User: What shape does this take?
Amino acid sequence: MSQLGCQSLYLGLSVTTHHRHIIVDDVDVFYREAGSRDAPGVLLLHGFPTSSHMYRNLIPVLAEDYHVVAPDLPGFGFTEAPARGVFTYSFETLTQIVDQFIEKLELGRFALIVFDYGAPVGFRLAMRQPGRIAGIISQNGNAYMEGLNESWTPIQIYWKNPCDANRAALRGFLQAGTTKWQYTHGAHDISLVAPESYTLDQAFLDWPGNDEIQLDLFLDYASNVALYPAFQEYFRSYQPKFLAIWGNKDPFFLASGAEAFRRDNPNAEVHFVDAGHFALETKGSEIAALILPFLSHVFS
Assistant: This one.
C-alpha cells in the first residue's frame, strides 16, 4: 500500500470499530474490535496511563486486512477495576487476564502490537505461547536495561524500599499535568495531540482507588525488569519477526533500548520517528506505513 493510501485510511472512515465487553475470570473486560474474524489476528496492548483509546486511529487502518482486537487492561480504561483486596494488580495477573481473553475470543495465531506496559504483558504471553505469536511490533515497549533513563530513579528507589514515603513520592506521576506532559513532550507539533487523549486518561486515573492500583503496578514493574533476561532469551531462541518503532524523544524509554533488540534478534527491524512517548498521536500515518508492510510479511 502506498503511503498516500495509508494516510487516507488513517482517517478511519472505511472500517467500523465495535466496542464490546466480555467476562474474563469474573472481570468485565472492555475491548475494541474491527475487521473480519476470518482474517489474521492482531492483538494491541496499551500502556500507562492510557487504554485501547490510544489505538483508536490505527485500528481502522489495520482492520482493512486483519482481525484487530484491543482490550483495556484491568485498572485502565473501561475495563472493570476490581478491588485490590479481591484482585492482585501485578503484571503476571494482567498477563493471565489477557491470556484468558485471547482464548475466549479464539484468536488462534496472531501478531502483537505492544506499547509501554503492554510490552511486558505481551512478552510474557510470547514466552508462554511462542507458537501462537506470528510477529511482534513494539512501539516504545522496552526489554533492556539500557532503555531505562533517569526518570525511573524514583520508581527504582521504591522498588528497593517500598515504604510509605517512597510510595507517596510517586503520586506526581498520576497528576493531570504529568499525564498531559507524557503526550506532549517530544512532539514535533503539539497541536496534533488530541486533548481528549490525556483528558480521558486522567479521568480514569482520578477514579476513587485507582491511584493505589497504579502505585501497586509501579512497584510490580520491578518484576518486568527482573524478566528482561528471560525476554531476551526468548528473542534469541525463537527469533520472532520483530519491528521496533520508537519515538526518539521518549522521556522514559531511550532509543538505545530499541537498538538493543537487534543484539538478540539480528533480523529485527528498528525505526525511529520524530516523536515522544505517545508517538501514535503525532506520527500515526508514518507508524502505520511501517506496520502494514511488516504485517504483510508476517502473514505471507
